[in-house]
Design a protein that fits this description.
The complex is a heterodimer of chains A (about 400) and B (about 250).
Chain A (H helix, E strand, L loop, with lengths): L1 H16 L7 E5 L3 H10 L15 H4 L10 H11 L12 H4 L59 H10 L8 H9 L4 H9 L6 H14 L6 H8 L19 H13 L1 H4 L10 E2 L13 H4 L8 E2 L21 H11 L11 E2 L2 E2 L6 H12 L4 H5 L9
Antiparallel strand pairs in A: 2-3, 4-5
Chain B lengths: L1 H17 L22 E10 L2 E13 L2 E12 L9 E18 L2 E17 L5 E18 L3 E20 L6 H11 L2 E14 L2 E10 L4 H4 L4 E10 L12
Antiparallel strand pairs in B: 1-2, 1-10, 2-3, 3-4, 4-5, 5-6, 6-7, 7-8, 8-9, 9-10
The chains are: A mainly alpha (about 400), B mainly beta (about 250).
Chain lengths: ~400, ~250
């Protein structure tokens, strides 16, 4: 009995010290196993979703800009929808057909081809920096809708833009009910909608919202320009600092930067954050055959005016202008150097008195400017798996 | 008007829900059974509660030999958020067994030392129904004492826990800050948690009612999503009273 008295507490202590040291094993999952099995038959989605939060480089956050909040679940759904050709009338095109990742989500055709090989009206705009269009991105310079979409600025949001493209007869030619039917027919959407919206109900509004969330998550902040600007204290905060030579730039690129700041930044932004103006006429034609913004507003002052795009990734988005008339950056530079036409609504910045401005750049200066524009390319974006085609 | 009211309700729900606390551990009662001799048998049932959760617990202690005892505890709680939605809730339970020794220093005073082992599970459901499900093992050493008079009694104990989270299934949709908290637990496990318990009881043999408080003194309690304290009210019965010819005093 005495032995037992000793043995009992001793047993308790031994129990504690027992070498039953199993490792902590936490399994983090996003999809239910059955859902993931189903999705994996069609899609290459990681078990643990990518992080779509954007962190702005210091030279942009120093301006008070902040990245748009991301609804991760909707971005994941939106990515699948963006690449899904079932969302077009003949099953031949998706959003990604005209917005190719390797081209910073632009197209290399003057005007893109839609369903049944129908030609579109204008050049595909690069989505490589849509995050910059967002109303959440910095001060509301252009009102609550942020920077509008399409060359004629007719869509206030990314949702309006994508539903506009899906229903455009020259692009995807779908009705709202076609969109719903096409999505309902694919088994992989039920779990994706359930996760994104809390239930599997499918509507064209939800389709549009999810695509918008994906597109709004695409930010481009990893260009050579960004890397250099981030390291230059005060860049974009003090005006003179913009002219500071970047140590990582070549002499050619630094000269090109100065030319850009002197002649281009007034419209296209010195910061590459958001365009300094929403619309303008850049003198492509003396009488524009395309009314542009004027075709939407009906205002004479808007005739021949088009969106002023951001120039991020500009080296990848040829051909240029709303009609894709220029095949190279050199041609674009030459237009601004010597080819501006006297359109009645020609932007003030491109006038010299009553006449179109002539920059009279030398060949070297033109090469310098092109060299600078090439520093705006974000190589990381082009292969970023988060934005890539998820279909097997 | 209806739209405005609906908006208000939604905003209120969001604000309330934002305040919902999800716990991954809460201290059960530190039991200090008043044991004096072989054959002593104690059982208790009680309600226990903490910040935004409550539940019940059961406890039994038996002395099969002089100075030796075995103890079993069961503890189960669930959330009681002011905005208890269908998807936002938490549940936890713990079952454990302990072996120990006691020393009746006086007819009114008994010291005890228990060493125990047990396991439990904490299941939390968050907004939109995403869940985390953590399983843990707890080992502990618990020194304590109990003083029991004719009409009243007091118990006090310290418990030194080694809390090891064995495995868990965590839906990434639970989002922040919950993912960070669970990540902290994963990183910190095993966690050493010191606890303190104090109880006051009144009654007369064989029935007692105890009021007690259990404090978690873990330095990282909030970082790990551990409840800081629980309070309890328990109904206790000295079962041996019913079969002993000459129940022990006092």
């Amino acid at each position: 009995m005495k032995k037992l008295r000793i043995a009992l507490p001793l047993f308790g202590v031994l129990l504690l010290a027992a070498a039953c040291n199993r490792d902590t094993d936490f399994n983090y999952y996003y999809y239910e196993p059955a859902d993931y099995t189903l999705l994996s038959q069609y899609l290459n989605l990681p078990e643990r979703p990518h992080n779509y939060e954007s962190v702005l480089p210091k030279h942009l956050s120093a301006l008070g800009l902040a990245a748009r909040p991301v609804q991760q679940n909707k971005v994941i759904l939106g990515r699948v929808l963006f690449y899904d050709k079932n969302l077009s009338k003949d099953g031949s095109v998706s959003c990604a057909s005209c917005h190719k990742q390797e081209l910073a989500f632009s197209d290399n055709a003057a005007v893109s081809r839609g369903v049944f090989d129908r030609a579109g009206d204008r050049n595909s705009i690069a989505l490589g920096s849509v995050l910059n269009f967002s109303a959440y991105y910095g001060t509301d310079l252009f009102g609550p809708s942020g920077i509008p979409f399409f060359w004629d600025n007719r869509a206030g949001t990314a949702s309006e833009q994508n539903i506009g493209s899906m229903t455009n007869p020259k692009e995807m030619d779908m009705s709202h009910s076609d969109i719903v039917s096409a999505v309902q027919a694919q088994p992989y959407y039920e779990p994706l909608f359930r996760i994104a919206f809390g239930n599997g109900q499918i509507s064209s509004e939800r389709v549009s919202e999810a695509i918008a969330e994906f597109v709004n998550a695409i930010g481009s902040f990893h260009s050579k320009f960004d890397r250099e600007a981030e390291q230059t204290i005060g860049y974009n905060v003090y005006n003179d600092a913009e002219y500071t030579n970047f140590s990582g730039f070549t002499a050619e690129e630094n000269r090109g930067k100065k030319i850009y700041l002197d002649h281009c930044a007034a419209c296209h932004s010195p910061t590459q954050s958001r365009p300094a103006m929403m619309k303008g006429n850049n003198g492509l034609d003396a009488a524009s055959p395309d009314p542009g913004v004027g075709g939407i507003t009906g205002l004479p002052a808007d005739m021949g005016l088009f969106k002023v795009p951001l120039l991020r990734n500009i080296a990848l988005t040829a051909p240029y202008m709303h009609d894709g008339r220029f095949a190279t950056l050199e041609e674009v530079v030459e237009h601004y150097n010597s080819g501006i036409k006297a359109h009645p609504n020609l932007s003030f910045e491109l006038r010299s008195g009553a006449e179109p401005k002539r920059l009279n750049l030398t060949d070297t200066q033109k090469q310098d400017l092109v060299a600078f524009l090439k520093t705006l390319t974000d190589e990381q974006l082009l292969t970023d798996v988060r934005f890539s085609d998820p279909f097997k | 008007m209806a739209t405005k009211r609906s908006c208000f309700v939604w905003i209120a729900a969001l604000l309330l829900c934002d305040g919902c606390t999800h716990y991954y551990y809460a201290p059960n009662s530190l039991q200090t059974p008043f044991l004096q001799q072989r054959g002593d048998t104690r059982v208790s049932l009680g309600f226990i509660g903490g910040d935004e959760f409550n539940g019940f617990e059961a406890h039994a202690a038996y002395s099969p030999i002089r100075y030796g005892a075995v103890m079993v505890n069961y503890f189960q709680v669930q959330s009681n958020y002011s905005d208890n939605t269908a998807s936002d809730w938490g549940r936890g339970r713990l079952t454990e067994v302990a072996l120990g020794a006691y020393y009746p220093a006086h007819k009114y005073l008994s010291f005890s030392l228990f060493a125990g082992w047990g396991g439990g599970r904490v299941l939390n459901s968050y907004t939109d129904g995403a869940k985390s499900d953590l399983h843990f093992e707890r080992r502990f050493i618990q020194p304590g004492f109990a003083v029991q008079g004719k009409w009243a009694r007091v118990g006090m104990a310290f418990r030194f826990n080694r809390l090891k989270y064995l495995h868990g299934d965590i839906d990434l949709e639970i989002g922040e800050p919950h993912l960070t908290t669970i990540g902290n637990i994963e990183e910190a496990s095993p966690v050493y948690v010191p606890e303190f318990g104090l109880s006051f009881g009144f009654g007369a043999r064989p029935i007692w009612i105890d009021l007690g408080i259990n404090l978690n003194n873990s330095y990282d309690a909030s970082k790990l999503g551990f409840a800081g304290s629980t309070t309890r009210i328990t109904l206790n019965c000295e079962l041996d009273h019913f079969w002993r010819k000459h129940p022990a005093r006092p």
